[in-house]
Amino acid sequence: VRINRGGGAFVCGESTALMASLEGKPGEPRAKYIHTVEKGLWSQPTTLNNVETWANVPLIINQGADWYTKIGTPNSKGTKIFSLVGKINNAGLVEVPMGVTLREIIYDIGGGIPDGKKFKAVWTGGPSGGCIPESLLDIIIDFDELGKAGSMMGSGGMIVMDENTCMVDIAFLTFSIKSKG
């Protein structure tokens, strides 16, 4: 097992771009017909998993797969780590079982919106995700439901916006940062 720190470019979150970066090449994705488990890093069989995946391995080994699959929803098992940031009282990393609602994450865990301001939206799923309005705060967190709401789970990012947040400014800032390599 080898652990490397990424270069920070958003595109290097894609596995083949990450491997190219580790090889000292520009962090650009490879053609998808190349299977990295056969020919990956330095043309050797390679598997890449994120830290969140590895963090679940000891739990599953110690408690068993049956125990783990009882957590979550029928289509989204286990837990998910979210980065809760923005206009929120308790920002930080939170781990929740799949199936909790956005409202529970934002208000029960995150402590709600500072200074008594109104909630406007939460951007989930990182740059490829979408903004979920107040009217959908009671949807459950799983892969299917976030997709139906026009967003996604993605990397677990949650940017909470209040009534004074300009969503265009947030999108501009996020995309301008993520587009730089």
TrEMBL record:
Domain spans labelled NADH-ubiquinone oxidoreductase 51kDa subunit FMN-binding: 2-58
Soluble ligand binding domain sequence ranges: 82-130
SUPFAM superfamilies from the UniProt entry: Nqo1 FMN-binding domain-like (SSF142019), Nqo1 middle domain-like (SSF142984)
Gene Ontology molecular function terms on file: 4 iron, 4 sulfur cluster binding; metal ion binding
Protein name: Soluble ligand binding domain-containing protein
PANTHER family: NADH-QUINONE OXIDOREDUCTASE SUBUNIT F
This protein's UniProt keywords: 4Fe-4S, Iron, Iron-sulfur, Metal-binding
InterPro entries the UniProt entry points to: Nuo51_FMN-bd, Nuo51_FMN-bd_sf, Soluble_ligand-bd
Membrane keyword on record: no
UniProt xrefs under Pfam families: Complex1_51K, SLBB
Segments forming a coiled coil: none
